[in-house]
Design a protein that fits this description.
Length: 66
């Protein structure tokens, strides 16, 4: 049982060390992903606005048809 506990502790220390190393060597790595997500949200919002404007225009023009 002690062997298992020591193995798990060692694994935890190694993983924490690797995470610390990655976070300190590449601190702005995630900012690129966030920027891409924000651009995607902006594009989706613009498309939604354009679709709404076109839909309203087509609906109003269709109402004028006799």
């Amino acid at each position: 049982m002690l062997h298992l506990a020591v193995t798990l502790y060692t694994l935890g220390v190694r993983l924490a060390d690797q995470a610390r190393t990655k976070l300190t060597t590449e601190p702005e790595r995630g900012s690129e992903t966030i920027e891409k997500v924000l651009w995607a949200v902006a594009v989706i919002a613009i498309v939604a606005i354009v679709v709404t404007v076109i839909k309203n225009y087509v609906t109003s023009e269709a109402g004028k048809i006799k």
